[in-house]
Amino acid sequence: MSQPVARKRWQIVDGVLLLDKPGGLSSNDALQKARRLFSAAKAGHTGTLDPMATGLLPLCFGEATKFSNRLLDADKTYLATMLLGVSTSTGDAEGEIIRQAPVMAEPAAIHAVCAGFLGEIEQVPPMYSALKHQGKALYEYARQGVEIAREARRVTIYALEVKRISGAEVDILVRCSKGTYIRTLAEDIGNALGCGAHLTALRRTAIGPLTLEGAFTLDALNELPEDARGPLLAPVDSLLGNLPAVQLDAAQTASFLHGQAVPQMLETGEYRIYGETFVGLGRADGEGLLQPVRLIASRT
Questions:
Q1: Number of Cβ atoms within 10 Å of the Cβ of 99
Q2: For residue 48, what pLDDT is reported?
Q3: How confident is the model at residue 5 (pLDDT cuts 50, 70, 90)?
Q4: Within 13 Å of residue 181, how many CA atoms lie on the same side as its CB?
Q5: Catalytic residue (choose from 14, 50, 92, 188)
Q6: H or E element that contains 82
Q7: Residue ranges of the tRNA pseudouridylate synthase B C-terminal domain (predicted)?
Q8: Going from the N-terminus, what domains does the chain have, and what CATH number goes with each?
C-alpha cells in the first residue's frame, strides 16, 4: 500500500532571491519552483521576463513582497542578440518567418543606426505582449489572427552599445526605461537598416539597483540543502537601494512604526528608513515631516 504524500510545510521567509532565470520557463513557473525550494509561505515577483529570456528575475519572499512593485518602474539593462535579414511574426525566434531580405549594411552603418535610437523614442507595443485590450491580453488576439490597433508609447533608451557583429548576428547592450520592448527595438533597428530583424536571445543583466552579481540558478539552489539557501537571500531593503537612507532614533522609530509622521527636515521624496534595522519606506514632505508609506512587520 502506497504511503500518503506529505503536505508541504510552508514557513515565514523574508528576503529577495536574485534568480538567474533559465530560458524556456515562464516567470511564474520560476517563482513557484523557487518558492518551493525555500518553503516560503508568501512570494511574488517584480515583473515578468518572457519565457525565451534568461537572466535577472528578482523574487520576493514574505515582507519583501510589500516592496515588489518598486522595481516595476525601474530601468532595466539587457544583452540582446538580433538576427538581421529575417523578420518573424512575434519579433523573436519563437515566431514564424514572415519575411527575409539580404543584409547589405556595413558595421559602420549598424553602429550609426543603433546610435540613432538613443534617447526618448516611440515604440508600438507588439501584438505578442501581455498588454490588455478590452480586458484581454494582446497575445490572445494575436493567436487568433486578430490585429488590434496600438498607439505608440514613449520610452527612453539610456544606452545602446553594439558589442559584437558576426555576419548577420548583432549583440547589443541596452539600458532602457520601463515599458521598453527589446523585441520591438530589434525589429525597428532592422527596419531602419532596410533588411528587417528579429530577436534570437535576450538576457536581463540589471533591474534598478540589482544586478546578476550574486544571482543564483534554480539548479544551483536545488543542489543545496534547504537550510543553506536562506542565507543566500538579499535583504528586503535591497529593493530600495536606489533611495537615500534615513536613520531614526528609538523614539522616532517607535512613532514611525505606529504609522505616525516624525520630524525630519528632508527634501521632498522617498527614503529608506532605519531604526536598529530597516523599518520601511517613508516620504518626506519637504516641510519637516517624514510620513510612513510602507512598513515592515515585526517578527516576534
A1: 13
A2: 82
A3: low
A4: 22
A5: 50
A6: strand 76-84
A7: 183-240
A8: 15-74+209-238 (3.30.2350.10), 80-196 (3.30.2350.10), 243-295 (2.30.130.10)
Residues in the chain: 300
List, in order, residues 6 or more apart from 72 with CB less than 8 Å away: 46, 47, 178
User: What value does the mean pLDDT take over residues 26-41?
Assistant: 94
| Three-state secondary-structure class, residue 242 | coil
Sequence letter at residue 162: V
With 90 as the cut, is the pLDDT of residue 300 above it? no
Q: Coil, helix or strand for 262?
A: strand
Q: Give the whole-angstrom CA distance, residue 77 versus residue 208.
A: 9
Q: Are 251 and 264 in contact (CB under 8 A)?
A: no
Q: Is the pLDDT of residue 240 over 60?
A: yes
- Would you state the pLDDT for residue 129? 63
**Where residue 298 falls among pLDDT bands split at 50, 70, 90?**
confident
29 is catalytic: no
- The CA distance from 224 to 266, in Å, is 45
Residue 167: which residues within 8 A CB-CB, separation 6 or more?
Answer: none
